Amino acid sequence: QVQLVESGGGLVQAGGSLKLSCAASGRTFSSYPMGWFRQAPAKDRVFVAAISWSGYNTYYADSVKGRFTISRDNAKNTVYLQMNSLKPEDTAVYYCAAGGVGWQLTTTTRGAYSYWGQGTQVTVSS
Predict the structure, then answer these.
(1) Tens-place pLDDT, residues 69-111
(2) φ, ψ of residue 111 in degrees (nearest 5)
(3) Torsions phi, psi of 117, nearest 5?
(4) Residue 27 has pLDDT above 80, yes or no
């Protein structure tokens, strides 16, 4: 199993930046592709970004492309989400997840991910 713990959330003004971290423990982190999802109040959890196990390949939802950057440091067992030019509509709980069987880089469904963190709140004020 993989245990995931997110951190770095908080309150920021529109146009600001935040960097989320997701620390992994358990089985070999570097063998897992990783992703970030978010869930706004009363809405479904939706895909934000994904990164391959090597870190060489990334994929983004259209809503965050050009503003968010996913990266990973396998030596530190950590995946990151750098969020710039934040908008009020980015307000949500952000979750990191480890890819499971059948994962592909462009798969945006929750079912492609086997392990989830507890989430970290990001609030963007206007």
Answers:
(1) 999 999 999 999 999 999 999 999 999 999 988 899 999 999 9
(2) -65, -15
(3) -85, -175
(4) no
Phi (first) and psi of residue 112, to 5 degrees: -80, -5
Q: How far is CA 90 from CA 67, 76, 110, in A?
A: 11, 27, 19
- CA 98 from centroid of its chain's CA atoms: 10
Let me know if 31 is exposed, middle or buried by CB neighbors in 10 A (0-12, 13-18, 19+).
exposed
DSSP lists the bridge partners of residue 122 as 10, 92
Question: Residue 9: helix, strand or coil by DSSP?
Answer: coil
Chain-centre distance of CA 78, in angstroms?
11
66: tokens are 């050009």
Distance CA 102, CA 49 (A): 17
Average pLDDT over the chain, rounded to an integer: 95
What is the distance between the alpha carbons of residues 122 and 109, in angstroms, rounded to a whole number? 21
Flag whether pLDDT at 32 surpasses 90.
yes
